[in-house]
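>> received
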Amino acid sequence: HTNKCSVGVATQDDELREKFTGTVERLISYFEFLAEDVREILSTLGYRSIEEIVGRSDLLKVLDDEFAQKFDFQNILRRIDGIDTCQVASNEPFDKNEESQLIIKKILSSIKNPKNPISIDTTISNLNRSFGALTSGEIAKRYGDAGLPDGTITYNLNGVAGQSFGAFLSKGVNINLDGVANDYVGKGMSGGKIIIKPQLQGHNFAGAGNTCLYGATGGKLYVRANVGERFAVRNSGTIAVVEGTGDSPCEYMTGGIVVILGPTGINFGAGMTGGLAFIYDDKREFIDNMNQELIEALRIDTDDTEAERLYLKKLLKDYVDHTQSDKAQDILENFRSEIRNFWMVKPKDMTVLP
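>> returned
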């Protein structure tokens, strides 16, 4: 309600968590009352449990208003006698996960003995969702958050990745994708690297979907293209470079470094309380798109921002090394003049480079 989550509902800041006055007992009580309400609603329908009404499309009806009458709900409301729920235990082909086979056959030996790094070359499709999560899970079973040494496991992929590509990625795992990815890239990642290089380079080309880096705490994400809306929402530690975003990037961001080499869309930095962002703004549009409630934008072509300039330049060089980005290379080759097109965005109460 204050745009800062200061009551502890969704914050990782220990000082803000101290302001949360709730207790475990109150949370339990809330869900008990919620369950009681559900039971009351069910009883008015003549049923005792949710299981009894799963699949009961005959209990639904179309609202009698002008808008609802514009649509045909026949197939949604059609009920097959004797079939109320899913009748097949599996969900082919969507339960097929190539990563599980790779873990079983090839990856476990390197996880158990990190002195023997491994590199896997394979294709990927949008049927392969949450690629990288199973690998990270196997690592977490043995090493917890410590992960593996950098570069112990490397995936070199080609194709179109499904949702949550690189979710919860662990330290020591690098994923290189020659192609594009769907929503939630790097969700919850705590380490490792995700490098996405679409086969084409060009203005407004999308390399990843919406809500990338949601809740991420570490690692690196480099995308040689634009990404979708809500980029780096609740990012608290990941370093990321992309070439443009949709609306609402860096929303509720509490840490990490984000570099955007192009347009950001509207509502940049809503609720942003930590971290830094460097925005390339050669069109002079960024300030109008920035949510200025908690953040400020500063130029970094002055004498007292040398450390920030050097850091940005180093980061762009690393980005070019991993992605071969033409846009970033052009900026580096003309860095002395191009630095005037950058804004450094930070929370108003933060004074130093983290």
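>> The mean pLDDT is 89.
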